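Let's practice the habit of predicting before peeking. Look at the sequence and jot down your guess about where helices and strands might fall. Then scroll down.
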Amino acid sequence: MKKKILVISVLCSSLLLNASEIDDLKLQLKQQQKMINALTQRLDKLENKTQTTINQIVKQDKQEKEKTIKQEYSAYSQAPEKNAKNASFSQKEYLPDIALIINSSAVGRNIDNEAYSSYSMPGFVDSDPDKDIPFNKDRGFNFNYAEVAMSSAVDPYFDAFAIFHMSSEEFEVDEAYVVTRDMPNGLKVKAGKFKSAFGRYNEKHQHAWEFSEQPLLYAGFFGPEGIGDPGVQLQWVAPTDTYIMLGVEAMQGENEQSFGNDKGNNLYIAYAKASLDITDDTSVLAGVSYIHGENLTEDTNASGTIENISGNTDIYAADLTLQTQLSSYSSLTWQSEYMYRDREKSIDTNSIGNLNAIKTGRQDGMYSQLVYKYNQNYAAGVRYDALMKNNLGDDNLDMYTAMLEYHPFEFSRLRLEYSLDKSKYFDGKQKDVQQLMLELNVAVGAHGAHSY
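Done guessing? Here is the structure:
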């Protein structure tokens, strides 16, 4: 009996010891997990701190270069004869930054190329087989464009920028302008040919769009090229912690989609934009814009002669962007924009050819998109577009788009995009356009960052 009790006691002691060891292991695992979480948080802070330091170094380097240019140019101006011999100020030391961007795509579409080239969007885009479709025009393979961008300091007072587009059919100067440096009181002047800062999308180039296709809103109101005219721009940034920017522009008015009267300076634009950090990780950007210009309308008088008669176009816009940073390389961005267009669409004449009445077309449209960046390599997004014809018709024109994006590295991108487009008409009848596209975009050289 004593032996049995002894054996049982030994077994119980062994079991108690094993349970104690298990508890110790669990405790050690919890402690290790806490340590891993603490190290992860510290690593994120170090990465953010490193990026901030890099930005500060870049800013300081730019300031030093500007200071050097001013000093050398000042010395050159004060003693031109002496410095002409010594050549102390030379633009050879400030070669322009040059970047090359190549964009191509493979497209699958349920509409053949000939029919697609002559689509219409009632109230917005007329049917024209010769219309300009610069991006993803054909089923199969497309070379969309090659873009060459150049930028440089000119002297202590100006920076110069030029962007050239090359495609299989043409070479064009997309933008070429100068921007002032170090103007007082937060002022900045831009002059030349440039893309207007109207709205949220217009100023961006195609390779900087979040989706491969242009929003219906911009396609319907401004066409594929947007507003990019010769003109002058004045912007003012308020000296506050909160970013507030006011701007005005005077441009030629070459955009035929809403304007087209470029016989003089006929386009005027104003906007206000502000950005606010709601939390350490969440920021909001909001803007309002207004544009006024003259448009040309073709009219046939009583004798059958076609005349160009001008009217006015006013467009009002509001945009809102909300971005939250989920981690160092992960973010969620929601962006929406609305526009209203009041356009004197057509002109009636009576039997003797005199002006009788002006018909005004009131239209509006919007888009809303959500883009999720998982990390440095992957992103996904969805977007809804709608054009409301208002007094030009009751049926809305809309489109649904989804995309998946892969960045092998910072300077290359593969994007798979699907869209269901209900805005296109062919031979007067609406037909759903289903499109699947794979787009490749690569960039080499020194290219400035785009705003989010």
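How did you do? The longest strand covers residues 306-325.
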